[in-house]
Design goal:
32% of the residues lie in helices and 22% in strands. By secondary structure, the chain is of the alpha/beta class. The chain has a single domain, classed as Spore Coat Polysaccharide Biosynthesis Protein SpsA, Chain A. The chain has 10 helices and 11 strands. A hairpin with a 5-residue loop joins strand 8 and strand 9.
Length: 255
């Protein structure tokens, strides 16, 4: 079993055009993501997947490996699936493909191991998503944050931008709400099934490709992860938040 990492990135993000190359503490966001991803030392191959010449030129300048993908993709996992067929070596059906989204500049290498472990350790698990505990009410209420509902076995039941699970009382850490942190892992044959299926109604309504997996009647499992002061970039306002916490971040201090 081999492990492949793919970082999807495009310039035309709906809420923040050009965000992959926006500077965070003087370093383009995509560079943060690639360097941190590379800190996970078990890759058989790690590449950036894009449809934009600006990102290609950036990769060439930095010496980062990349593949070109279609400009028609609106979902990160579709881009990753296409890229998985364009790597330097054939990806076999039982190999693991990890999507590390290009707007997670504060990721930790341990997060990558967390999404891979369930697949490696359980033949029945073919697809995982990193699920981080939400301890901040504002994050729970934020529609840019995709929340996860899962059963007691960790199987994902639904993902939504709404603040779920619903509670009548005040939000608290004890609610154990979880959010999607943009790292996903698939067995290659599972990823092929995903790309062969058209977008589904709930995927389009929630703007979340995990719902396609659930609509297809396939299983996705959480890789639970404790809360970290680790923030995604969905809008320009998120840059200041990331910079505030990244400056004291252990991974950042290594590069």
């Amino acid at each position: 079993m081999k492990i492949y990492g793919i970082i999807p990135a495009r310039m035309s993000a709906s809420r923040f055009y050009g965000k992959p190359l926006h500077d965070i503490l003087g370093v383009p966001m995509l560079e943060h993501v690639f360097i941190r991803s590379k800190m996970y030392g078990q890759w058989d191959e790690l590449i950036i997947a894009t449809c934009d010449d600006e990102i290609v030129n950036f990769c060439k300048k930095k010496g980062f490996p990349f593949v070109m993908t279609s400009s028609s993709h609106t979902r990160a996992l579709d881009r990753v699936a296409e890229a998985s067929n364009k790597l330097s070596q054939p990806v076999l059906e039982n190999d693991v493909v990890v999507c590390v989204q290009g707007d997670e500049p504060m990721l930790e290498p341990e997060m990558i191991q967390a999404v891979i472990d369930p697949i490696v350790n359980n033949d029945k698990i073919k697809c995982t998503v990193l699920a981080m505990h939400i301890v901040e009410k504002d994050l729970w209420l934020n529609p840019d944050t995709v929340k996860i509902i899962h059963n007691e076995k960790g199987k994902v039941l639904y993902t939504s931008r709404a603040p779920i699970p619903y509670v009548k009382k005040e939000f608290s850490e004890d609610l154990m709400a979880r959010r999607i942190y943009g790292i996903f892992a698939f067995k290659k044959n599972y990823l092929d099934l995903f790309i062969d299926h058209t977008e589904t109604r709930l995927e389009q309504l929630e703007a979340c490709d995990s719902n396609r997996i659930l609509d297809m009647d396939y299983d996705q499992y959480i890789a639970p992860y404790p809360n970290r002061k680790s923030y995604s970039v969905d809008s320009p306002n998120d840059i200041k938040i990331v910079e505030k916490y990244m400056v004291n971040d252990d991974c950042y201090k290594k590069y």
